[in-house]
UniProtKB/TrEMBL annotation:
<keyword id="KW-0378">Hydrolase</keyword>
<dbReference type="InterPro" id="IPR031167">
    <property type="entry name" value="G_OBG"/>
</dbReference>
<feature type="binding site">
    <location>
        <begin position="288"/>
        <end position="291"/>
    </location>
    <ligand>
        <name>GTP</name>
    </ligand>
</feature>
<feature type="binding site">
    <location>
        <begin position="212"/>
        <end position="215"/>
    </location>
    <ligand>
        <name>GTP</name>
    </ligand>
</feature>
<dbReference type="InterPro" id="IPR006169">
    <property type="entry name" value="GTP1_OBG_dom"/>
</dbReference>
<dbReference type="InterPro" id="IPR015349">
    <property type="entry name" value="OCT_dom"/>
</dbReference>
<feature type="domain" description="OCT">
    <location>
        <begin position="354"/>
        <end position="438"/>
    </location>
</feature>
<feature type="binding site">
    <location>
        <begin position="317"/>
        <end position="319"/>
    </location>
    <ligand>
        <name>GTP</name>
    </ligand>
</feature>
<feature type="binding site">
    <location>
        <begin position="191"/>
        <end position="195"/>
    </location>
    <ligand>
        <name>GTP</name>
    </ligand>
</feature>
<feature type="region of interest" description="Disordered">
    <location>
        <begin position="447"/>
        <end position="501"/>
    </location>
</feature>
<keyword id="KW-0479">Metal-binding</keyword>
<dbReference type="InterPro" id="IPR006073">
    <property type="entry name" value="GTP-bd"/>
</dbReference>
<dbReference type="Pfam" id="PF01018">
    <property type="entry name" value="GTP1_OBG"/>
</dbReference>
<protein>
    <recommendedName>
        <fullName>GTPase Obg</fullName>
        <ecNumber>3.6.5.-</ecNumber>
    </recommendedName>
</protein>
<feature type="compositionally biased region" description="Basic and acidic residues">
    <location>
        <begin position="453"/>
        <end position="490"/>
    </location>
</feature>
<dbReference type="InterPro" id="IPR006074">
    <property type="entry name" value="GTP1-OBG_CS"/>
</dbReference>
<feature type="binding site">
    <location>
        <position position="173"/>
    </location>
    <ligand>
        <name>Mg(2+)</name>
    </ligand>
</feature>
Length: 501
């Protein structure tokens, strides 16, 4: 039966936004008193909360599918839809949140830390909100947008001040039980501990946490044994305690060789960028099981070699509690010094987020298609507007066209080479496909005219004085030519009559 889980994939679905309402208020003597359709409610968010009382991801291992509440529909008489209920998911402190591609989103290292991992959808606007002086009675409303759906990965890395490392059955779990109130499983066979155990140690006025990391063996950094499954739990510690078994009965093993193997595995394990390598952190050596007579003799033999290598050595017994007080106070001094150093560091520079005024909210990508180029419009705003549009309502479609035109989509489409009738897609994948027909307000570039002129500006029928004078002379010349032609025809007729007589 699984009792400890430190990696899990969650399948999340945030709440959908409720649709806006189309309604017209009707009262006695006021059959059309104006629009009163209210807005839909926003969908619920899914929020991760770092909870010190949670120590495992086991609940999410059994139930990985989680969803938040949907927003309610808007109603008439200005009754807004209910807001969807948020879903809070408690996770252990030290949980690393990644997206489906493995990119880190947030590190939940502070108790009480909150992170909206799946934002809910936006509620649609009702026709009362859409009304304005030019559109006094809208016959449409906006639809609610869907909430975020997808997968996120949770990875637990134990947050502890001190990590106990060593071979299996070296006595790490017994040491945690002896110096704290933790009661881990203890038995006389290797790999008894299958998950990290956390204990709180009181050293004088100082309190710190100690993590019992499951036994390491040669090749652990490459995944052998429990390997990488639990080596990552050492990443966040301040100090390391090498628990060496001085009473082992296995052939070929002794405290010095065990230490060499553990140091090699710690050196081979890559820590995240910005963290101190494991072997550069404070390290103590605890020679354990001195309640066995042979172990005490071996400890006295290897202690000079360990001290010559710069290690501070403590001879302890988890049975008789010999040397435990000295060890805990030594660890307390290291933790206290580290906390003082961290507090003295300058505060992180405050990040100020300002609106992106000059940046476009969309982009256009030209893609080759079987029947010609396809112009794909990408961006959060166009995609959200399309999701909010009821394409069964012509007025709603016209409202969408107005919004896209004001955003500058039509101008950019022309600059990208689109012509009337071109195929335009909004969003990735299939998206919303339509044939582009530019509006008059964005068709200036489509008109052929000399550079620097616009035929739409030459529509004033009023003529200047010179134009009227020129037109007058043209009419007078045309009349003179007509009279001359009639006179010549009359004279020709008279001459014919004289000849006949």
């Amino acid at each position: 039966m699984v009792t400890f889980v430190d990696r899990v994939t969650l399948h999340l679905a945030a709440g959908k936004g409720g649709n806006g309402c189309v309604s017209v208020k009707r009262e006695k003597f006021k059959p059309l008193a104006g629009p009163d359709g209210a807005n839909g409610g926003n969908g619920g968010d899914i929020i991760l909360v770092a909870d010190p009382n949670v120590t495992t991801l086991l609940s999410y291992h059994h139930s990985p599918h989680r969803s938040a509440g949907n927003g309610g529909f808007g109603m008439g008489d200005h009754r807004s839809g209910a807001v969807g209920e948020d879903l809070e998911l408690p996770v252990p402190v030290g949980t690393l949140v990644k997206d489906a591609d493995g990119t880190t989103l947030v590190d939940m290292i502070e108790p009480g830390m909150r992170f909206v991992v799946a934002p809910g959808g936006i509620g649609g606007l009702g026709n009362a909100t859409l009304a304005n002086p030019k559109r006094k009675a809208p016959g449409f409303a906006l639809l609610g947008t869907p909430g975020w759906t997808g997968d996120v990965q949770l990875e637990l890395k134990t947050v502890a001040d001190v990590a106990l490392v060593g071979f299996p059955s070296a006595g790490k779990s017994s040491l945690v039980a002896a110096i704290s109130a933790a009661r881990p499983k203890i038995a006389d066979y290797p790999f008894t501990t299958l998950h990290p155990n956390l204990g709180v140690v009181q050293a004088g006025d100082l309190r710190f946490t100690v993590a019992d990391v499951p036994g390491l063996i040669e090749g652990a950094s490459e995944g052998k044994g429990l390997g990488l499954e639990f080596l990552r739990h050492v990443e966040r510690c301040t100090a390391l305690v090498h628990v060496l078994d001085c009473a082992t009965l296995e052939p070929g093993r002794d405290p010095l060789s065990d230490l060499e193997v553990i140091l090699a595995e710690l050196a081979a394990y890559p820590v995240p960028e910005g963290q101190v390598p494991l072997l550069e952190r404070p390290q103590l050596v605890a020679l354990n099981k001195l309640d066995v007579p042979e172990a005490k003799d071996l400890a006295e033999l290897v202690r000079p070699d360990l001290e010559a290598r710069g290690f501070r050595v403590f001879e302890i017994s988890t049975v008789s509690h010999e040397g435990l007080r000295q060890l805990t106070f030594a660890l307390g001094d290291i933790v206290a010094a580290h906390r003082v150093a961290e507090a003295a560091k300058p505060a992180a520079e405050r990040i100020v987020i300002r609106p992106r005024g000059s940046e476009r909210d969309f982009s256009i990508r030209v893609e080759g298609g079987t029947y010609g180029d396809i112009f794909r419009v990408l961006g959060a705003k166009p995609l959200r507007w399309v999701q909010q549009t009821d394409f069964q309502n012509e007025e709603a479609v016209g409202y969408l066209a107005d919004r896209l035109e004001k955003l500058g989509v039509e101008t950019e489409l022309f600059r990208a080479g689109a012509t009337p009738g071109a195929t335009v897609v909004i969003g990735e994948g299939d998206g919303i496909i339509f044939d582009w027909h530019p509006t008059m307000t964005s068709a200036a570039e489509l008109m052929t005219a000399p550079r620097g002129t616009d035929p739409r500006l030459d529509m004033n029928p009023r003529r200047t004085t010179s134009q009227r004078r020129e037109r007058y002379h043209e009419r007078m010349d045309a009349k003179a030519e007509a009279r001359a032609e009639l006179e010549s025809e009359r004279l020709a007729t008279l001459s014919d009559q004289v000849d006949d007589e």
